[in-house]
Amino acid sequence: MTNGADCNAVMPGEATQTRLVEASDSDFVAMARKDTRLPGGLTLPPEGVELPAVLERIRVVASRLREGGSGATWMIVADETVVGLIGHKGLPVRGVVEIGYGVAASYRERGHATRAVAAVLSAARTDPAVNVIEATTTFANIASHRVLEKNGFTRAGRRYDPDDGELILWRRSVAPENL
Q1: What contacts 54, CB < 8 A, 6 or more positions away?
Q2: Among residues of the chain, what percentage have pLDDT more than 70?
Q3: What are phi and psi of 3, to 5 degrees?
Q4: Domain count of the chain?
Q5: Which residue range forms the structural domain that includes residue 162?
Q6: Which of 2, 50, 90, 174 is the most exposed place for a label (fewest CB within 10 A)?
């Protein structure tokens, strides 16, 4: 996906356009400091988009992705404000890549995550290294279940995470015959 790519259309009753902008290392540094303005001129919500420790973990993953030839870590942007993050959790393995995403609390329930996941799916369709996208959610995260269901993901099992406990595994093929 190119820098600044538009996501799906604006949601009914909402004037906000959502787009994805590739996150740079300097963006992560500024977000962790909770700077009000990022290097490219985008702004952050007052509460930021994520905790500094989480941003540092994502920054490390983003660095590894860039080293592996992928820039698959994006800021979710609405009206020039970074409202969340989305990206691959690693390089594709045998055609499968896992994604993760999050939206700042003050920007949830506005369709940003749904449109961002749709944009990542669209980008994956042009990536010959990706055939399947996976995501995990906690059992209680009904909003994320809906985001994934709206984007054609289906429940594919369970996975255990030492930090989050039992998770639902979601899958979606991006192979042309499944579109």
Answers
A1: none
A2: 89
A3: -60, 125
A4: 1
A5: 5-178
A6: 2
Average model confidence (pLDDT) for the chain?
89
**What amino acid occupies position 74?**
W
Ordered DSSP codes for 86-147: EEESS--BTTEEEEEEEE-GGG-SSSHHHHHHHHHHHHHTT-TT-SEEEEEEETT-HHHHHH
Give residue-wise pLDDT tens across range 81-128. Answer: 999 999 999 999 999 999 999 999 999 999 999 999 999 999 999 999
Partners of 56 in beta bridges: none
Q: What is the DSSP letter of 23?
A: P
SS3 68: coil
> What is the model's pLDDT at position 10?
43
